[in-house]
Write a structure and sequence with these properties.
Blueprint (H helix, E strand, L loop, with lengths): L9 H7 L24 H22 L20 H8 L4 H6 L16 E5 L9 H18 L7 E7 L4 H13 L4 E7 L18 E6 L16 E5 L6 H9 L6 E5 L8 E5 L5 E5 L14 E5 L5 E6 L4 E5 L6 E6 L6 H13 L6 E4 L1 H7 L17 E4 L8 H8 L7 E4 L22 H4 L3 E7 L3 H13 L5 E6 L1 H4 L2 H12 L9 E6 L1
Parallel strand pairs: 1-2, 2-3, 3-4, 4-5, 5-6, 6-8, 7-9, 8-10, 9-11, 10-12, 12-13, 13-14, 14-15, 15-16, 16-17, 17-18
């Protein structure tokens, strides 16, 4: 019986109408997170029931109730539900709110202890006027939850907190999670001083996913072994040295997904990522704010024959070499333009692209094209991409980069599809020599069949550029232009643009020009 109500609430009706809803329960909803901090049990109870009622009301709206169940006054239908359903309902609540349900009645006292997913976040403490007290309460709360839970394993453990207030406690919590065979560890730790994770984290046999965001040097033990780890995400960490960083990557023999985001490689000279099982690799370098003398970087050698997805974004502050990539790799390369030391960056860009010589699909930015052709003496080192059939430009193409794009297309003799996902920069007028072609790429004569142009504004520069493509692509079959609704609703402008594109000379007489609304 729910002690705070003398009559059943509408929540009872919502819950009692459910028949075996394990696969039908609604997804998680955003709920208040300050529930457990209240010292008054009755307001807590009311808030909990309101939250659960919101969940179930939403569920009720999503499914058709085929049967009406009669409810006797005073009967608690919620507590009569099987444990499995109640556990499923509690799994949609934040950990603090799920634990707070223990005060509802004796029936609910221990239900939360079976919870397999735990999440703790101290970010709500920093706006509190009783900061020190709240920090202490947070630490005690996490500790008590770990001590009182009855589940034998932890499927997912999420922790976001400032380490400076509770370094020893953080180590204890993580050790407890590892002891309970945690499968996914998601840590966001703000450390102003060097902080070492407990060594047991680095030889866990149960971990499948490790996501670590930590604003300090990543202290690594002498021995690292993740025999089952499938996913590793590192963000904002500073790698300490070559040998320990190499141990980290070598200690993940079955890793399938690796993401290194905004990390510092400054203490490294050379590191190798050679993981046969790796299928997805993302490297996102920190924004560059230093001087050009800081571009020494390190050598990152990547050897993975089973890789399917590769993404790099940054200033090429490190030298990246790719080996043994197969044709099935979907590559995405974004290189930010840095005027200083452009020759050095050009050489690094060429070295990076040389490793993509077998791939069939590449997504690149305008900056990447600029970087490739910013130094004349590197062009001979750029290979011919015999397998590449699809090229997508992920950023707006600047008019000054059209010439460099044509130079790149000369090295893509079998290109079949060319996508301008952000179109041409309409704000920058073209100069007289911007589109002057030294030689027409072979693919325009032999293989290019489809051009997709997005973000069309019907500017004169865009029309002239598309006209250029239509003139030189003699076997082009279709040009798909994606434009705004306002353009399509202006029949006069639409007809004018269409007529202009169809005006001779036109390389391919059979090319279909289609306009689509976006």
């Amino acid at each position: 019986m729910l002690h705070c109500f003398s009559k059943p609430t509408s929540l009872s009706l919502s819950l009692c109408q459910i028949a075996y809803p394990f696969h039908l329960l609604p997804p998680p909803f955003p709920l208040p997170r300050k529930l457990f901090s209240s010292p008054c049990t009755v307001p807590i109870t009311v808030m909990i029931l309101r939250e659960m009622e919101d969940i179930m009301s939403s569920f009720k709206r999503r499914q058709k109730v085929s049967e009406v169940v009669k409810i006797d006054d005073g009967e608690d239908k919620i507590s009569q539900l099987p444990d499995g359903i109640l556990h499923h309902i509690l799994s949609f609540l934040p950990t603090s709110n799920a634990v707070a349900t223990c005060i509802l009645s004796t029936r609910w006292k221990n239900l939360w202890t079976i919870r397999n997913n735990l999440d703790f976040d101290d970010s709500l403490l920093y706006s509190s006027p009783f900061f020190d007290y709240k920090v202490t309460c947070f630490m005690h709360f996490v500790q008590r939850v770990l001590e009182l839970r009855n589940a034998s394993t932890i499927e997912k453990f999420c922790l976001s907190c400032r380490v400076c207030f509770s370094a020893s406690h953080v180590c204890t919590w993580l050790s407890s999670a590892i002891k309970n065979n945690v499968q996914e560890l998601d840590l966001c730790l703000f450390a102003e001083e060097p902080f070492s994770l407990p060594p047991c984290v680095f030889y866990s046999k149960s971990l499948l996913v490790l996501k670590l965001q930590m604003t300090c040097i990543l202290e690594l033990p002498d021995s690292i072994s993740f025999p089952c780890l499938r996913t590793l995400h590192l963000r904002l960490v500073t790698f300490p040295d070559d040998s320990s960083t190499q141990r980290l990557f070598s200690g993940c023999p079955v890793l399938q997904e690796l993401a290194v985001l905004d990390c510092e490689w400054i203490h490294l000279k050379s590191v190798s990522i050679s993981i046969p099982s790796l299928k997805s690799l993302t490297i996102d370098d920190l924004p560059y704010f230093g001087s050009s003398d800081d571009l020494n970087g390190c050598e990152i050698r990547i050897d993975s024959s089973n890789l399917c997805f590769l993404k790099y974004s940054g200033y090429l502050s490190n030298e990246i070499y790719l080996y043994n990539l197969s044709s099935r790799v979907d590559a995405s390369i974004h290189i930010a333009v840095l005027c200083e030391k452009r020759n050095q960056i050009a050489f690094r860009a060429v070295n990076l692209f040389r490793g993509l010589n077998n791939v069939s699909s590449v997504r690149i930015s305008s900056g990447a094209i600029k970087s490739l052709f910013s130094a004349d003496d590197v062009l001979d080192r750029l290979p011919v991409f015999q397998n590449l059939t699809h090229l997508e430009l992920s950023k707006e193409l600047e008019n000054q980069t059209v010439g460099a794009l044509m130079e790149l297309l000369r090295r893509l003799p079998k290109l079949e599809s060319l996508d301008f996902s952000q179109g041409l920069d309409p704000c920058k007028p073209s100069g007289e020599n911007d589109w002057k072609l030294k030689a027409i790429p072979t693919c325009f004569f032999s293989s290019l069949k489809t051009v997709n142009y997005c973000n069309f504004h019907a500017k004169e520069t865009e029309i002239c550029f598309l006209k250029l493509l239509l003139n030189i692509a003699i076997i082009l079959e279709e040009m798909n232009i994606f434009c705004s609704k306002s353009f399509l609703e202006d029949p006069k402008k639409h007809k004018e643009v269409r007529n202009h594109l169809h005006t001779p000379p036109k390389g391919s007489a059979h090319c279909a020009i289609k306009f689509f609304e976006v």
